[in-house]
Each structure stands twice: as structure tokens, then as C-alpha cells.
Amino acid sequence: MATKTILIPTDFCVASLNTLKLALASYIDQPTRVVLIYAEYPDNSITELLFYSAENRIKALVTNEFKEALEIIKNRFEGKLLDISIELLTMNTNGYLNNYVDANKINEIYLPKTYQLKPAKNGFNPLPILKKAKVPVTEINWGTDYKQSEQEQLIALFI
């Protein structure tokens, strides 16, 4: 069976991983690779650009709760989930996105239908551009309780 690669936006909140959980649950036994993306414009400062590292930026954004949530999902879908990578999307244009999709061999994009991504400083909402991608886009509807703590959202991933 062919491996499928899916792309899912995140804001590094545990709740944003519900889209991933539901997307993986929709595949019966198909091996899947996941690319989580966070959309952020790079800083314009020359000093910042000289020392910019996407890997370091991702490390700065990932919380312990988010790491725990990813481990829960990896364990829950063990055997089906081949890999999860986290990448930065740094431009907000169709051409850039389509090149990114081609380069990463993305087969499908999953978006939250009602959840509002909450990007940090310099972050932007990638949903409008992702909806225009040249690969199939599936919106997943799931409710969220914005009053829940990260720990409560983490527990909800078990359900």
C-alpha cells in the first residue's frame, strides 16, 4: 500500500492536534507521513536574519504539553504513522505553497473547520492560502472548549 503524506497547520497549542488525530483516524491502514506547518514571517532585522534557524525557532515554540500530545498521537497510531515533522512556512503566496507541496510530496491537506489558529508574534494564518493548494483539501469539523487548559486538552486526545 502506498504511503500518503498529509499537511496540517498548527499553532503549537495541543487543541490544534485534534485535526491530526481525526485525519489519521480517517485512514484505515494506510501508512502516513505527517508534515505539521507553522506559518511565520521571518524577522526583518539583519541580525535576526543572519542567525535565523528554522530548527531553533521551532524548538522555541514547542511546549512540553505539545511534545506530550505528539507522543500520545504517535503511540495511538503506531504502525500507521510513519513520521511527523514540523516545518515553518515563511511566505504567503500560491507559488511558494505549490512549490512546497511538490517538494514535500504532499498528497492532501487537512484543515480545522472551526478551530481558529492562534499564531505567535510574526505568525500568520495560513488557512486562506492552504485552501487554494493544488492538492485535495479536507476541512475537519471538531468542537473545542477554549476554556480548557492545555493539560485538559492533552487528556482529550486519548478520547
What does this 3D model show about the protein?
- This protein is an alpha/beta fold and 159 residues long.
- The protein has helices at residues 18-25, 46-50, 54-61, 64-76, 94-103, 127-130, 150-156, and strands at residues 4-9, 32-39, 81-89, 108-112, 137-140.
- The protein has a 5-stranded parallel sheet with strand order 3-2-1-4-5.
- Helix 1 (18-25) links the parallel strand 1 (4-9) and strand 2.
Secondary structure: elements and pairs:
Elements: E1 4-9, H1 18-25, E2 32-39, H2 46-50, H3 54-61, H4 64-76, E3 81-89, H5 94-103, E4 108-112, H6 127-130, E5 137-140, H7 150-156
Parallel strand pairs: 1-2, 1-4, 2-3, 4-5
Strand order, sheet with most strands? 3-2-1-4-5
Shape: globular
Characterize the largest beta sheet: strand count, sense, and whether it forms a barrel: 5 strands, parallel
**Gyration radius, to the nearest Å?**
15 Å
Number of helices: 7
What's the N-to-C terminus distance? 28 Å
The tally of strands reads 5
How are helices and strands ordered from N to C? EHEHHHEHEHEH
Indicate the structural class: alpha/beta
- In percent, how much strand structure appears in the residues? 15-25%
Query: Quick check: average pLDDT?
Result: 86
What share of residues is helical? 25-40%
Low-confidence stretches: none
